[in-house]
Amino acid sequence: MATNPMHQFNVYKIGPEIKINGIDLSFTNASLFMLISGIFISLFLLLGTKDRKIVPGKFQLISEMLYNFISKMISDTAGKKAKPYFSFIFSLFIFVLFCNMVGMLPYSFTVTSHIIVTLAFAMFIFIGVTILGFVIHGFKYLKIFVPSGVPMVLLPIIMIIEIISYLSRPVSLSVRLFANMMAGHTMLKVFGGFVISLGLVAGWLPLTFSVALTGLEILVAFLQAYVFAILTCIYLNDALNLHH
Amino acid sequence: MIKIISLTTLSLFILRDVYAAEAGMPQLDPTYWASQVFWLTLIFSAIYFLIAKIFVPKIKGNIDARESQIRKDINEANSLKEEADKKLKEYNKIIDEAKLEAKKLISEGRKKINEDIQSKKDQIEKDIQKETLSATKEIEKFKINSLKKINIISEEIVSDIIKDIFKEDLNKSSIKATVSEVMKERRN
């Protein structure tokens, strides 16, 4: 059903079936759009670093602005110690941003609108940050669950809350991005369907909404990529600096 | 009114569609989860290595190069400015010195000219005095001479008159004495 707003999230395989140990690893439309995003990122950065001018061209300027933007974001939230993770945060931000933006193209697929993709990212970040915390601080890293300046009576409750909030980090991180992208694209599709079903008589109203929503969705695409990256920085900061 | 109606129909549509989709929210279908994670890992790792090994160092290099270039340019500009200031000071000093010298020269020249004028004036005054003196002397001499001549002429006239009247000569010395007496009286 073409008017089903969830239809756009369907995953189907492209090309031959690839099975390793009984696990289906076929190349799907999701993989295709990950690849397209990757190619766009590479092209963009290639254009941005092709000419190494003192006075930058358009692409060089944008890539340098992106670099400075993320560099500032990391130094603001996680401090100087987070410098070795710059490339990872940069890749994360640019990948999520490009996946979101490529998803805004009509008839395309939004990679980040799938919970499994965002959860994979979130789990990787969660596990990575936790390991990092234990490697740097040893068992003292457990102090993250014991905020300073809390009365002894409240401490057990606070600790339980802190542990729950720590463990729910990957869920909140992944669901935030996934839900935002899915909701936005569903809304766009629904309004798009209205344009057709209401026809020439009243179709202009949902069309206006559609146009406005497209602008909003582009904003959301950028914002969610930013939020994803900055939350990663904050988690990284907890592991690196441990001041709660 | 129209708004409310459209909103209700809209929400109805959404509800219907959501119900229709509930049967199969594609995100919750685990068929391709492994595939998605696999390809995501593959592609994201590739992007990460490209960015970490190639693009970030390049961008950083560019930014650093620009910063160092700008710093160099600013330093150069500062040193040039300092040099210009120094040159300006030197120039001002030279101008001041030149002004001072010019003043000195002018005052010296004025003094010399004044002295010159003074000496010339003195010389002229001296000359004038000398001339006046000699002229006075000459006048004096003239005066005496003329008196003498007047005396002689008077004596001659007197003797002539007496000769004409009395038809005889008078003693010359007595005439002389009388004339000089009369002259003296007149002069007084």
Features:
heterodimer; A: 244 residues; mainly alpha; 7 helices; 2 strands; globular; B: 188 residues; rod-shaped
What does this structure look like?
The complex is a heterodimer of chains A (244) and B (188). Chain A is mainly alpha-helical and 244 residues long. Chain A has one domain. Chain A has seven helices and two strands. Chain A has helices at residues 29-50, 58-77, 86-103, 115-137, 155-167, 169-202, 204-241, and strands at 19-20, 23-24. Chain A has a two-stranded antiparallel ribbon with strand order 1-2. In chain A, β1 and β2 form a beta hairpin. Helix content of chain B is 91%, strand content 0%. Chain B is built from three helices and no strands. Chain B has helices at residues 2-22, 33-166, 172-187. The radius of gyration of chain B is 68 Å and the shape is rod-shaped. The chains are: A mainly alpha (244), B mainly alpha (188). At the A-B interface, β2, α1, α2, α3 and α4 of A face α1 and α2 of B.
